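Fill-in record for GMC family oxidoreductase.
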Amino acid sequence: MLVKMRKSGWKTTMMNHDLRSMPEAIEMHPDIAIIGGGPAGIAIARELAGTQMRVLVIESGGSDYEAEIQALNSVESIGQPFVSTAATPEGRGYTGALAWLNDIPAFELRNRMLGGSSHTWIGKCAAFAEIDFLSRPWLPLSGWPIERSQLLPAIDRAGKLLNLGPNLYDESLFTLLHSPPEDLGLNKRLLQPFFWQFSHMRHPRAEPTRFSRLARDITAGNIDFLTHATVTRINVDGEGRTVTSLELKGPDGRSASVHANTVVLCGGGIENARLLLASNSVQPVGLGNGHDIVGRYLCDHPRTSLCRFTGRDIDAVAKHFNFYGVNHGGRTHFYLRGLSLSPEIQAWESLTNCAAYPVQIHAQDDPWAALKRLTKGASKTVKEDLLAVAKSTDMVTSGLYDRIIRKRGLPHRSIELRFDVMAEQQLDSESRVTLTDRRDRFGQPLPRINWKIGRRETDSVKRLALTIADEFARIGLPKPQLPDWIAADDNTGATFMDMAHPSCTTRMGTDPRTSVVDTNAMVHGIDGLFVAGSSVFPTPGHANPTLMLLALSIRLADHLKQRHATARSHTLQASEPDLLLHRG
């Protein structure tokens, strides 16, 4: 990569650099600049590795957690989640070693470090369903400008990157399961099965996929990384039609600039909107914001606990809602079985898509939890954990049989089984990201988050809970304990929490009056400025976003290859007369 200082004209070749160790006011000249070294940015870099394009990935943090860098994630939250005095606050549902993530303020659970959000995820993945792509008359602005079938090849490529099994998440998965669950007789016009799978590194197998490791595996000479470099402004030409450069700041105050005719913004659902709005030197309202759309339609996945089972009821339910294995590619991939509202009931009652997944809270003397602590050297009470395993040889033996022979989830001794829910949000133009007058250490305005959860989402969650309760009772399964607000039909007592899945703030579409990027993810009216990540989702679905945002990122990378090839071809054609002239 060509790098030079503005004043001295110094040049060097750069591979992996830290802005803190580079000269002041340095200039960089890649073909493509990627803002953000999280899953989206790293996926695009991997796809472009080995091409003729010089690519620079710019990351605000470093390779490890740094409190001063994380402080740049501060927001001013003026919307939900809020909790009435009569309700108990909801967390994000994390347990065990990740329980601390429940206490991170709403919309601040973001990771400014190489690998991004993959540092604090558990690897949970699913693809959006067909209904998520459709225009639904009861949901304004629903419908994607691309069909699900067009995205399937990219979803499969994203699945391979995440070491996933087949991308099947509904009842079509049953035919592939090594030992499928029994047919419970649930009314499929009301409830349908939904599955999730979990992304893991191949080595070590139990570790969720960390994109920082995937970044380190990139050895192509055309891919460079720059860490501790926060992009503070995207510059465009005088008419605001073409991207020209980026302004960067390091934590020690030094500055730099990047000059590229192609920029891909991969900062996440909050930062993508924030940076576009703050880049207002040419367009006073911000880039791509001529119709005041940047930052609007902010969605997340409102999460709450839907219903609970205790005592003997736990085993009766866990028998049917657990992990199920698929043999694929020489490995066993496990899928977690849950339940979703059927497309029929969504249409009949004008509801959003939502799904419930089982979560078990293990007892202290659960033998499998104890065995896991012992093998990882994480046991604080070794004698008690050894005793828990020794006293439960039957459970350990049956668990090994279930896991190895039947390809099922392990049996656990639990004190509670609950179903948690994540719901799709209806688009609301007043749910949005704007800028405050407060500034961060680089002088950048902080984002103001006004997250709104509508009546339709709350009604959808309540309908799912009541339907599960009624259907379980009808087929002979234990009836769950419902939250007070659902049992009393009192939406004012509902409590939700964000799941750190912000989306739709730079949504994709064909109409600039309701979208920020086109179907190729380029900002309307600004040549060379692209956006990747969940912020371009036209609608958010209920599924965890990583698989889908990676699919869209891979699709964008393919477009960038074509775009570069076309530009290169035009350049060669334009230079041909000159070549002929010199030959003469």
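KEY FINDING: The longest strand covers residues 331-341.
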